[in-house]
Amino acid sequence: MAMIFSEHNSTTYMSEPSSSLASQLQHAAQAGLQSVQQSFDAYQSAHFPKRTPEFFCLELCGEAGELANLEKKRWKGKAIDDAHIADEAADVCISLMNYANARGIDLGNAVRMKLERIERKRAECERNGEIY
Length: 132
Hints:
Blueprint: E1 2-5, E2 11-14, H1 18-47, H2 53-75, H3 82-103, H4 107-127
Antiparallel strand pairs: 1-2
Helix pairs in contact: 1-3, 1-4, 2-3
């Protein structure tokens, strides 16, 4: 399997069947997210007051809005530092972890199941000559 790294540090896999890539992604998402989510839960519980899922949901919306605003500014031609965007993206991730933990959502399992549904739909579209 050939791996190509883009300028944005993402990896593109070539010469690999889609179903194999989907399976790899599903496994990696579940294993990796569960560990990260558990660590976030332990950190949040040890150092911050207990908050409701609603609080974290609103925090998540606010952080996503800040990220979207930076992207809008960049889209309009304003120079926005990549580090600032990365910082806001991290805030979105942290807020999502805290929300999922407060709501009792196993993100690793939820993402794995969602990826399974996406892959089924994508494969069906491919069989029908459609683009997903």
